[in-house]
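Rather than argue in generalities, we have chosen a single entry, letters for residues, whole numbers for local backbone shapes, without further comment.
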Amino acid sequence: FLRTTSMLREQIKKEPQNPIPYRFLGVAYLDRGRYEDAVNESKKALELAEMKKLKLKDFLVSFYIISAGNYEKGRLKEAETYALKAVELDNNFLDGYCVLSFVYDSLKSYDRFFQVSENYLKLWNEIVKYPERFPAYTFHTMGHKWRIHLCRGFNYLIRKQEEEANFELERAIQESFGITTCLKLLGNFYLENNYLDKAEETFARLLNAQEQSEEVLFKIGLVKFKKRSFEEAIVYWRKAVEKEPSLFDIRLMICKMN
């Protein structure tokens, strides 16, 4: 990272009006989670590209980085603006639809969410089936498909469309690269929305995958507590404390219940 960014900075010193090194700096900073730097360098790339009257379609990645960086910083409207510009420039730009899906999910703009997430999924399938049609593209969000399915499942549950929700959630679990992350997000959603049986089932599945994680033991105890199965809650919380004695809040809850 340091070698790459140093070389790009040297190139900028020699060619300060060249947008290309700024474009690559944006990519490097996004990969490291330096979102403000990524946004700033990518904006500079677009500014110079427009000044030189270059094809903005060659800078779709900069639009993506600005939108993704703003999304990560919670600036949803700015993220939406740049992602929309990207898909207006090229309606085959997968990354733009991905960011828009997460933005509209966060904004609870459900109709827009379902529309753009459907666009993402259709385009993703085309890319996989006919990669020769997309020779000039480098997509950064191909691995986010499971997250799109997960969000769609959550939103179907909010709409009380359980059959559609179950389909999407199973797809999310099947396609996730790290099943523990997917199950944790799913279990938390069930718990927060009082789907207690489903929460318990999901955390139990996660417990098998994570081999007695204290966090998951606590969550199962919390489900038992909400179900008013207090003795069972204490059993799980004690197991969590045995694994991590510094969990004083859980110790206090056990003491209050005894």
DSSP finds 14 helices and no strands in the chain. The CA atoms of residues 37 and 53 lie 24 Å apart.
